[in-house]
Backbone:
């Protein structure tokens, strides 16, 4: 079985491989950078979900794998509080689409204000932590949960939600 992953992001690839290998030990993986066709910094659940779906659909355009996975990070504002939001999409080789959303926590206002002026969370978090490549590692969610839930762990949960729905759909056939 072959699984396509629509990113070069290390935290995302790690999550897809960790969860998929548990269920499909024989799985082979290939990651490709694909266009999300949404803004570099998605600013709503709707846009973030769309980005994940676009990535997964683009991967499966030529039906070269068992399924393709698109994962997208963004933010979503509720009553003036900006939350991290994350979405995943699985497109199977029979054309079925499964989606799932991940854990969200509020961002500090000093971060939110920069995103509202057009900055991207990745670089803003690098400056905030004085590190580089946070988005490939613990992510903002790791930084603001004292590393209890890292970006990979959060995407692992999304992967469980996606594979769970996909496996159930096969049983119900
Ligand atoms: O290479 P891709 O797959 O695009 O991965 P990415 O991390 O660059 O991009 P996303 O589309 O997932 O996220 C959109 C932006 O939000 C940033 N972002 C999202 N979640 C983050 C997190 O938990 N920590 C740091 N940056 C995050 C990310 O770095 C981008 O600047």
Residues:
């Amino acid at each position: 079985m072959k699984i396509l992953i629509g990113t070069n992001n290390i935290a995302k690839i790690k999550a897809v491989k960790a969860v998929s290998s548990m269920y499909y030990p024989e799985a082979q993986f290939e990651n490709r950078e694909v266009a999300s066709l949404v803004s570099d910094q998605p600013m709503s659940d709707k846009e973030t979900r769309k980005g994940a779906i676009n990535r997964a659909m683009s991967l499966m355009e030529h039906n070269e794998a068992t399924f393709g996975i698109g994962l997208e990070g963004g933010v979503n504002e509720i009553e003036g509080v900006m939350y991290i939001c994350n979405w995943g999409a699985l497109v199977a080789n029979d054309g079925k689409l499964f989606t799932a959303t991940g854990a969200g926590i509020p961002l500090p206002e000093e971060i939110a204000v920069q995103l509202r002026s057009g900055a991207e969370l990745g670089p803003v978090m690098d400056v905030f932590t004085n590190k580089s490549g946070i988005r490939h590692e613990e992510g903002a969610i790791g930084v603001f949960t004292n590393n209890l839930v890292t970006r990979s762990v959060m995407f692992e949960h999304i992967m469980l939600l996606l594979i769970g729905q996909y496996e159930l759909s096969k049983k119900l056939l």
Q: What stands out?
A: The radius of gyration is 16 Å. The CA atoms of residues 42 and 74 lie 5 Å apart. The mean pLDDT is 96. The chain has one domain: 2-171.
